Amino acid sequence: MTDETGPWLVVGLGNPGREYAGNRHNVGFMVADLLAGRLGAKFGRHRRAVAEVAEGRLGLGGPKLVLAKPLTYMNLSGGPVVSLAQFYKVPPGRVIAVHDELDIGYGQVRVKCGGGEGGHNGLRSMSKSFGTKDYVRVRFGIGRPPGRQDPADYVLSDFGTVERKELDFLVDRAADVVESVVSRGVEPTQNLYHGV
Asked: pTM here?
């Protein structure tokens, strides 16, 4: 049973370090940063987990959000996320992972609960560490790499010039989707945003 009054843990998945900041794989960090700005919260190093955390409330008297950016590399994200979930007493059903998604075209943001990881190492690490796949995913479409480019190289490259023209708008939309999941739930959010 999910605690309807407890906090939500919103995890932006990415890699730490300046050299990764603009990568497609780091779009989760970008969304987390924008959400922190909306909450008027600042990220700081957590004392119990290898992560940066920012806390705030969604609206006046709204639910508490714990925003997190794991400081391990992507494929080790699960450990810090589970540590934070335990620290803040957040069940997996109130954890939202924001991540890049190869299987969705650029410009689309989708939400789902559970399901496969689609080869995403951050999600795979989270599922393994939690022992369940039943957490919410906000999937930021980056599309497939052009030609024969290796997907691993593609996700670790920066957004292209044309993509960057829309990036701020799309990161903003992804942040809206996260807030909608918290305030409305997964299914109403799907109904609201999946046609866009």
From this structure: 0.95
